[in-house]
Specification:
By secondary structure, the protein is of the alpha+beta class. The protein has six helices and four strands; from the N terminus they run αααβββαααβ. Helices cover about 45% and strands about 20% of the residues. The longest helix is centred in the N-terminal third of the chain and has 30 residues.
């Protein structure tokens, strides 16, 4: 019986110690000043970044660089087809930024003015998507480039795509 009483007194001591500990935590929380905690959604007046507002031009540039589907003609025979996000056959998601190099023939389809190239952007982007259809994450990138190149060339009456470049190729 003496041993059971010792055990019971030990448990009662632990119980009271726990109660005192919890009361101390509650008192500390109740008496603390939470107004000094920095909130993440409030601007920080101490940093130089908040003192200089971001210009509209920088915001527009950043938005365009983050994800774009616009087709743009660049110098030396390059066309940027923009970003692509698509589901692969094995359930993964591909995010890619693709550019193509075209033949520099004076009578080629690509050598026409920039507005004509941009107006055919839907055909170019659709051709890339069709070429990527059925791909898996294990597909060799040179095989994918060849498929895209062949598919683009099959949709063109004049001119020729010489090479396909991946500026970004992320499989998740």
């Amino acid at each position: 019986m003496d041993e059971k009483v010792k055990k019971l007194l030990t448990y009662i001591g632990y119980f009271f110690a726990l109660i005192i500990f919890l009361i101390g935590i509650a008192y500390g929380i109740n008496s603390s000043d939470f107004s000094k905690i920095k909130k993440y959604d409030e601007p920080d007046s101490n940093t130089p970044k908040s003192s200089a507002p971001i210009s509209k031009e920088k915001q527009r540039y950043a938005a365009a660089r983050y994800y774009t589907t616009s087709v743009t003609v660049q110098d030396n025979g390059m066309i940027s087809l923009g970003d692509f996000t698509m589901n692969l056959a094995d359930g993964k998601v591909l995010t890619a930024n693709i550019s193509i190099k075209y033949a520099d023939n004076s009578d080629s389809w690509f050598s026409s003015e920039e507005s004509k190239i941009v107006s055919k952007s839907s055909v170019l982007r659709s051709s890339v998507i069709n070429a990527m259809h059925g791909s898996t994450a294990r597909t060799n990138s040179s095989d994918v480039k060849d498929r895209i190149k062949d598919n683009l060339n099959s949709h063109l009456r004049e001119g020729e795509v010489e090479a396909v470049y991946f500026n970004k190729f992320i499989v998740q």
